[in-house]
């Protein structure tokens, strides 16, 4: 993921990407708006803005689909959430609190910082709300 610092998108757009990943990489805009309880036009507008980033493609009648780069980015977003949640749980927060606090702050934590925290935690494989995956370029940049 060269040239990405993790701060490119708004918190809500990050949530859309994670939702798409959860759905296997594709969803209809109406599914997204229903899931987030938003007006479909709000989602369509955001999706159109995001199409220009190369992370998603909007295919008429089929829906919104993650590109390979978008999938990689969304995978990073999930790792960021889980690494931060795990870190917070080490400071006395319950798993539920840690997960919720991580959701509030994650979009403002750069990839570089997440990689450093991930490394300092020993690249954990389990977070408080799911598995943490580590790809070579995320966690071991020297090997690239
Ligand atoms: Zn969580
Ligand atoms: Zn790692």
Could you list some keywords that capture this structure?
single chain, 144 residues, mainly alpha, Arc Repressor Mutant, subunit A, 2 domains, three-stranded antiparallel sheet, globular, binds zinc ion
Short note summarizing the structure:
Pfam families: Fe_dep_repr_C, Fe_dep_repress. By secondary structure, the chain is mostly helical.
Percentage of residues in helical conformation: 40-55%
User: Structural class from helices and strands?
Assistant: mainly alpha
CATH superfamily of the largest domain: Winged helix-like DNA-binding domain superfamily/Winged helix DNA-binding domain
The number of distinct β-strands equals 3
Query: How would you state the average pLDDT, rounded?
Result: 91
Ligands, ions, cofactors: zinc ion
Number of spatially distinct domains: 2
Largest sheet: 3 strands, antiparallel
Q: In the CATH scheme, what's the topology name of the largest domain?
A: Arc Repressor Mutant, subunit A
Give the C-level CATH assignment of the largest domain: Mainly Alpha
Please give the count of helices. Answer: 7
Quaternary state of the chains: single chain
Q: Categorize the overall geometry.
A: globular
Rg over CA atoms, rounded to whole Å, is 15 Å
The end-to-end span amounts to: 10 Å
CATH architecture of the largest domain: Orthogonal Bundle
Could you spell the SSE succession in H and E letters? HEHHEEHHHH
Strand content: 5-15%
Strand order of the largest sheet: 1-3-2
Family: Belongs to the DtxR/MntR family.
Protein name: Fe-dependent transcriptional regulator
GO molecular function: DNA binding; DNA-binding transcription factor activity; protein dimerization activity; transition metal ion binding
Pfam family, one: Fe_dep_repress
